[in-house]
C-alpha cells in the first residue's frame, strides 16, 4: 500500500511504504519482539532509577577519553551479540539443510544474514573494540591528560553508534544487502539490488567511517605531540606503538573506502557507470579499491591486539619484553607491507602470472615480521615467572591459534593453491582463525587486563576461565571442520547442500558455535558476578597485576585529569623503574588543572547524520535536505562555542591525591 498524496508522500516518505515492514517474516517478528522487550526493560530501568541525567551529563556528553573508550567497548559487546546471533543462524541452517530438507532460512534471508554478519563483526565489533582500548589506555600510557582533540573524540564515537543504528534499522525496516560484506558489483549495482539493502550498507559505513577517520587523526596527533617529557619514540610502550601505526593505516586507508562507497552511491543514485559492466565501467576496479582499504584494515585490527599481547606477556612473565626494538621494527614493517598485498584477495581475477607472483611473494614476506613477534613473545615467557591469570591464558591461546591461521594464510598466498581454495570454506576458516584467534582473543585479554584500571575492581577469574575454555574449544570445533570442507571444494555462502556425506562436518561446526555461545554467556555472567562481588574483587593499589607502564601509576579508576603532575620518563618500563627507585606520590605543591568541558554537540551531529542517512536510503529528499542543512548549522554553531574549558582547583586536586596516597 502507498500513501494518499503521491507528490507530498513521495517527497516526505520517498519509496518507504508499509510493505517495507517485514511483518510476514516470523523470524524478524520474534526478533523485533525480543529487541523491543529488551529495549523497554533497559529504558524502563534507567527511567525508574532516574539515571537519564547522570548518563547524559557524565557519559553521553563526556569528552573524557576513558569514558569514551569504555562506551566504545560497550558498543562492541552489544554488537557482538547481534553479529553472533547471525553466525548461529547460519551454522544452524547449514547443519540441517541437506537433500530434501530446505532448512529454516529462505535464500533472500540467508543472504542478508551473512552480509550483516561480516559487516557488523568487522565495522561494529572489531573496530569499536580496538578504538575503545586505544582510547582508554593510550593517553594513560604516554602520561597525557587527554587526547589532542577531546570533542572530536566524542563526535567520532557517536558517529560510529549512528552507523551501527542505521545498519540495525535494516532488520525491521526494509532489507539489508544480499551481496556479501564487501558488496561487490555487479551484485551491488541498481539492476541486481534495486531495494534498500545496499543503500543501508553504503550509508551505515559512510557515517561510521567519518567517525573512524577523525578518531585516527586524533590519536596520531595525541601520540606524536602529547607524550610525557623524556618519552622518546623508542621509549613508548609497544601498545602505544601499535596504536600509532594502526591509526596511521586508518588515516591512509579509510578515505579510500569513503571514495569507493561514494562512487558506488553515484552509480546507484545518479546513474553513473564507474563499476557497471558496460558504458566504460569496470567492476574489477571496485574489487581493487575495496581491498586497497580492506587489507590494511586487517592490520588496523590486529596490530593493536599485538600490542595488548606484548603488554600482557611482559606483565605476567614478570620480565621486560624481549627484543623491544625488533618488536617496533617488525610492527613498522607490517604496517608498510600491508599496502603491498591486497591483490592476494583475488588471484583468480586474471591479472596474469607476473602480478600474482609479486603479490604472492609480498604476502609471504609480511609473515616474517609477524613470525618474529611470535618468537619475541615466546622468548619473553622463557624463564619468566609466568602467572596464568585470565589475560595470560588468552595470550597462550592466541599464539597456538594464530600460528595455525598464519600458516594457512601463507598457503593461500601461493597463487596455484589459491586457485583451488579461493571462495571455499578453507578461506572462511583461515580469516576467522586470524580475526578471532588474533583480534578477538586480544580484545578479551585487554578487557580482562585493563578492567580493574577502568572500574577499580577485577573481573571474576572463575567465570573468566569458563568463558575462555568454551571460547577456545568452541572455536576449534567451529572452524577446523571448515578447513576440511574447503579442501574438499565446498564453496562459501551456500545455504543448502546435496551431498549427505558433508553433513557431519557442518554439525560439528554448529556444535562449536553452541560452545562459543556458552562462552559469550559466561562472559556476561562474569561481568554480572564481578559487579555483584566488586567489594571482594576491589583493587585499592591501582596496580593489581604489578604492571610495568604508566597507566598503572594512577589510581583505579584514574581521576578525570589522569596525572596531577606530568610524569618524567627515563625507561621503556617507566612504572616498573619508578617502583624500583621507591617513587613516592607527591602530597603537596598542586596547581589548578586545565580541562575540557563536556558537550552534547557530538550527539546532536550523530543523530542528524542518522536521520540524513536513513532519508538517503529511502529517497526522502526533503528530510535529507533539511537534516543536511541542520547538520551544517549545528557544526557551524559549535565553532562559536568558546565556553569549552574549566580549571579543577588546586585544593580539589590535593584532596584527591592525598586520599590516593593514603590508600
Automatic annotation (TrEMBL):
Highest taxon above the source species: Bacteria
Topological category with respect to the lipid bilayer = Multi-pass membrane protein
Q: Which InterPro entries match?
A: Cyt_c_oxase-like_su1_dom, Cyt_c_oxase-like_su1_sf, Cyt_C_Oxase_1, Cyt_c_Oxase_su1_BS, Cyt_c_ubiqinol_oxidase_su1
Q: Where is the Cytochrome oxidase subunit I profile domain?
A: 50-570
UniProt keyword terms in alphabetical order = Cell membrane, Copper, Electron transport, Heme, Iron, Membrane, Metal-binding, Respiratory chain, Transmembrane, Transmembrane helix, Transport
Name the EC number(s): 7.1.1.3
Q: List required co-factors.
A: heme b; Cu(2+); Fe(II)-heme o
Q: What class of enzyme is it?
A: translocase
Question: Per the UniProt record, which residue ranges are transmembrane?
Answer: 27-49, 69-85, 114-137, 157-181, 201-224, 244-266, 286-309, 321-343, 355-379, 391-414, 426-450, 462-484, 504-529, 603-636
Provide the reaction this enzyme catalyses: 2 a ubiquinol + O2 + n H(+)(in) = 2 a ubiquinone + 2 H2O + n H(+)(out)
Q: One matching Pfam family, short form?
A: COX1
Compartments (UniProt record): Cell membrane
Coiled-coil annotation reads: none
Q: Which SUPFAM superfamilies match?
A: Cytochrome c oxidase subunit I-like
What is the first-listed, main subcellular location in coarse terms?
membrane
Entry's family note: Belongs to the heme-copper respiratory oxidase family.
Q: How does it assemble?
A: The cytochrome bo(3) ubiquinol oxidase complex is a heterooctamer of two A chains, two B chains, two C chains and two D chains.
What name does UniProt use for this protein?
A: Cytochrome bo(3) ubiquinol oxidase subunit 1
Source organism per entry reads Dyella acidisoli
Amino acid at each position: 500500500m502507498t500513501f494518499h498524496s503521491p507528490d507530498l508522500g513521495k517527497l516526505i516518505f520517498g519509496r518507504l511504504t508499509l510493505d517495507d515492514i517485514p511483518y510476514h517474516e516470523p523470524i524478524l517478528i520474534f526478533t523485533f519482539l525480543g529487541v523491543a522487550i529488551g529495549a523497554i526493560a533497559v529504558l524502563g530501568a534507567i527511567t525508574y532509577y532516574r539515571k537519564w541525567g547522570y548518563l547524559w551529563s557524565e557519559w553521553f556528553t563526556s569528552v573524557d577519553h576513558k569514558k569514551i573508550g569504555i562506551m566504545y567497548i560497550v558498543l562492541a559487546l552489544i554488537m557482538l551479540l547481534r553479529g553472533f546471533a547471525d553466525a548461529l543462524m547460519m551454522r544452524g541452517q547449514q547443519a540441517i539443510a541437506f537433500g530434501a530438507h530446505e532448512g529454516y532460512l529462505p535464500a533472500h534471508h540467508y543472504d542478508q544474514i551473512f552480509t550483516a554478519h561480516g559487516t557488523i563483526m568487522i565495522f561494529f565489533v572489531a573496530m569499536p573494540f580496538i578504538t575503545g582500548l586505544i582510547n582508554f589506555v593510550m593517553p594513560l600510557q604516554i602520561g597525557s591528560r587527554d587526547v589532542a582533540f577531546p570533542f572530536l573524540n566524542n563526535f567520532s564515537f557517536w558517529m560510529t553508534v549512528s552507523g551501527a543504528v542505521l545498519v540495525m534499522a535494516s532488520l525491521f525496516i526494509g532489507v539489508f544487502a544480499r551481496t556479501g560484506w564487501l558488496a561487490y558489483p555487479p551484485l551491488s549495482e541498481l539492476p541486481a539490488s534495486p531495494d534498500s539493502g545496499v543503500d543501508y550498507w553504503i550509508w551505515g559505513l559512510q557515517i561510521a567511517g567519518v567517525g573512524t577517520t577523525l578518531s585516527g587523526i586524533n590519536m596520531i596527533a595525541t601520540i606524536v605531540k602529547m607524550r610525557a617529557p623524556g618519552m622518546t619514540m623508542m621509549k613508548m610502550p609497544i601498545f602505544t606503538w601499535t596504536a600509532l601505526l594502526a591509526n596511521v593505516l586508518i588515516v591512509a586507508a579509510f578515505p579510500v573506502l569513503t571514495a569507493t562507497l561514494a562512487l558506488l552511491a553515484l552509480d546507484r543514485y545518479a546513474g553513473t557507470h564507474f563499476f557497471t559492466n558496460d558504458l566504460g565501467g569496470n567492476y574489477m576496479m571496485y574489487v581493487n579499491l575495496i581491498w586497497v582499504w580492506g587489507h590494511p584494515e586487517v592490520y588496523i585490527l590486529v596490530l593493536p591486539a599485538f600490542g595488548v599481547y606484548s603488554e600482557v606477556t611482559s606483565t605476567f612473565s614478570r620480565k621486560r619484553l624481549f627484543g623491544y626494538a625488533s618488536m617496533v621494527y617488525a610492527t613498522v614493517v607490517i604496517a608498510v607491507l600491508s599496502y603491498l598485498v591486497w591483490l592476494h584477495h583475488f588471484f583468480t581475477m586474471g591479472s596474469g602470472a607476473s602480478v600474482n607472483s609479486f603479490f604472492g611473494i609480498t604476502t609471504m614476506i609480511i609473515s616474517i615480521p609477524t613470525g618474529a613477534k611470535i618468537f619475541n613473545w615466546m622468548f619473553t615467557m622463557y624463564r619468566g615467572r609466568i602467572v596464568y591469570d585470565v589475560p595470560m591464558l588468552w595470550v597462550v591461546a592466541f599464539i597456538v591459534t594464530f600460528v595455525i591461521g598464519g600458516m594457512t594464510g601463507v598457503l593461500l598466498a601461493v597463487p596455484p593453491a589459491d586457485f583451488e581454495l579461493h571462495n571455499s570454506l578453507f578461506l572462511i576458516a583461515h580469516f576467522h582463525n586470524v580475526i578471532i584467534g588474533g583480534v578477538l582473543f586480544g580484545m578479551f585479554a585487554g578487557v580482562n587486563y585493563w578492567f580493574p584500571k577502568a572500574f577499580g575492581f577485577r573481573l571474576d577469574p572463575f567465570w573468566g576461565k569458563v568463558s575462555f575454555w568454551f571460547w577456545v574449544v568452541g572455536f576449534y570445533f567451529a572452524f577446523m571442520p571448515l578447513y576440511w570442507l574447503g579442501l574438499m571444494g565446498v564453496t562459501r555462502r551456500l545455504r543448502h547442500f546435496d551431498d549427505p556425506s558433508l553433513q557431519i562436518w557442518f554439525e560439528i561446526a554448529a556444535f562449536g558455535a553452541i560452545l562459543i555461545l556458552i562462552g559469550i554467556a559466561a562472559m556476561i555472567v562474569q561481568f554480572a558476578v564481578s559487579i555483584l562481588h566488586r567489594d571482594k574483587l576491589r583493587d585499592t593499589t591501582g596496580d593489581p597485576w604489578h604492571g610495568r607502564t604508566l597507566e598503572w601509576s594512577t589510581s583505579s579508576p584514574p581521576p578525570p585529569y589522569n596525572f596531577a603532575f606530568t610524569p618524567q620518563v627515563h625507561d621503556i618500563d617507566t612504572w616498573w623503574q619508578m617502583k624500583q627507585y621507591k617513587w613516592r606520590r607527591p602530597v603537596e605543591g598542586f596547581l589548578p588543572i586545565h580541562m575540557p568541558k563536556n558537550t552534547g554537540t557530538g550527539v546532536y551531529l550523530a543523530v542528524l547524520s542518522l536521520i540524513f542517512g536513513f532519508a538517503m536510503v529511502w529517497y526522502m529528499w526533503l528530510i535529507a535536505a533539511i537534516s543536511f542543512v541542520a547538520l551544517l548549522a549545528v557544526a557551524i554553531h559549535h565553532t562559536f562555542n568558546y565556553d569549552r574549558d574549566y580549571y579543577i582547583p588546586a585544593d580539589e586536586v590535593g584532596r584527591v591525591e592525598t586520599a590516593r596516597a593514603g590508600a
